[in-house]
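User: For a benchmark we're assembling, each entry needs the component sequences followed by a predicted structure for the full assembly. Here are entry 17's components. Please fill in the structure.
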Amino acid sequence: MYVAVKGGEAAIANAHRLLADRRRGDRSVPALTLSQIAGQLALAVDRVMAEGSLYDPELAAMAVRQSRGDLIEAIFLIRAYRTTLPRFAATRPIDTAAMVIERRISATYKDVPGGQVLGPTFDYTHRLIEPEMAEDAPVAAPARRDPPEDAGHAPRVTDILGDEALIEADGEGKGAEPADLTRTPLAFPASRDLRLQALARGDEGFLLGLGYSTQRGFGRTHPFVGEIRIGEVEVEVDLPEFGFPVVIGRVRVTECQMVSQFTGSKAVAPKFSRGYGLVFGQLERKAMAMSLVDRALRADAFDEERRAPAQDEEFVLAHCDNVQATGFVEHLKLPHYVDFQAELELLRKMRKAAGATDETVSGSKGDVEVVQ
Amino acid sequence: MPANRPIDLSSRAVEGGFANPVFDAQAVFAAVLQAISRPGTVADCGSRAAPPAPLSPAQGAILLALADAETGLFVEAADAALEAWLGFQTGARLTEAAGAEIAVAGRFDRSALGRFPLGTLAYPDRSATLIVEVPSFNAGPPLRLSGPGVRGSAEIRPAGLGEGFVAARRANRALAPCGLDLLLTCGSRVLALPRSTLVEEA
Amino acid sequence: MTDDPGRRAEAEKRGGARRRTVSAFAQAGAGFLSEAWDRLGAGRTVAVIRGPETGLVMVRGRAGGGGAPFNLGEASVTRASVRLDGETVGHAMVLGRDGERARLAAAFDALWQVEAARGAVEREVVAAVEAAIASADRDRRAETEATKVDFFTMMRGED
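Assistant: Structure for entry 17:
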């Protein structure tokens, strides 16, 4: 039951003023600039863009600052902002094979055409806090090496394997208008395009936990990273005012191709199956988790029994959105006085009916303090 | 989104749109809302739009107010100039009748019930709204309206609806809750006959 | 949106040279465009027909990289349409929320359509933007290439 409660206006205004003060902190310390956040906390900004489902680094940096670094709050701000804007068009699907590569690795092929480039990775660091980073110590310019002529145009690993029919193909992709959960409420069973959209904007932590669960045996698929690539791709849009497609800029994305066993069925010979991850920004962990969960959710396509949480489409899709989740969890802290009072009354009646003594009934009055 | 056809880009495409997009769209939306809420009453969209043929000013204004890049739009006898105008002004691309959410048609008759989406029992709102231009709102045979939004009954006299209009309305009503909604336009004015309105010969 | 390769090729062909120039204007910085306009567009009038207005495009990916399209997420864009000297219409859409950048990109699209100005616009704007993008890409490739793993195999045991 919802009953309007009035009051607290001055308290709210002052709380927001206090928030602004605490957010700014010590005035003798310079305020963070957006370019500092976008440049030096770039991966936090990327996460806000991916889960906010809006590519705009400057705006995401503003959201990170406004939310004091609470990334789910920042994602909420971005989601709210996007609802205020009209959608002009949908782009042509981005071509990750034409990516300007900044990182590209394969755990399955040592000598993958185009090579393995580590890029700006945390891998192989010692995870030791570097005290010199406490100050603004000088940082060396990156090393350079002349790339070969064809550098930057590496074929997708799964295309290479696909030539031998050892791995499932990308499947048919012609004509269909993809489902859009920002326009039509989720319904089950969901198509793979809808699942990929939900996962791409889903919570990194939730998907990471689910992905991990598949490795620990809850929907096991025995995965390998076929390829991870990070870099910029062109965004191309067909606009009526032009009548032809134009490139309007580039976005950075992370793509993960997860390859896993498939023992075959009556109709299909054994081959490798695939899970797919694609997210805005440099978010390798998220892309990997997404690809594991995408594969787990495709259980039906491989005649696998759905037993584990990661294989349960409704469980995954209905709970992976952190803005929805935080809204429902956090609403519990809002006034529920009347609700609770009703439950209290009910409880008293039930206890009376059950023959509880007056003494224990009066003891329950202490609960009222909880309401304060 | 419908298939992408060559669009003739001309200067015409950028002319004849809303001068004040926000306020003009709000005014036209309010006019259409008023017309639908009170079936049989005439609302005026003003001289806010100057669309290419075959659209009338009211039809152009309604499409500018209601259509966007995600709207399935069908216009009977549309040419490249109109497609370019709609493309620039609304972002919408023309689709076939079966995919229309808003359709500008020559007439409302029984065949329309087979051509345009009627909605589904789960989603009756996924039906088309038809917009039909008539030569006059007061020179035709009298029709009696009743139903939601009409106090008692009301009489309208639109001309040029053609044979079988009342029968087609009856068939449309039998599809409830599915069926087509109808907007009649005449110059800059609009009159609505939503699916819930009962139309009889007076 | 068509997903038919034939249609796609046809639409791209229709764009011809203008497809390339519009893409270059869209990727240029506001400062660069402004400075180039002072040089190439001085004395011309630019009337805004629409915008600059900020909105969204839905960015799509493909399942598996090459399969059926899906909606990855939106990106903010700004578009503008202008009329140059009361005649030529130019349009632009750029990523981000910079209205002035979109307006200038649209102005350059119109200016490029004016025969007399085309050569200079292609040389001083289009070619310059493309060169800047290529140079930035080259730098990034060289830095990335330095992180390439050169594998060597170690033999173990007796052969």
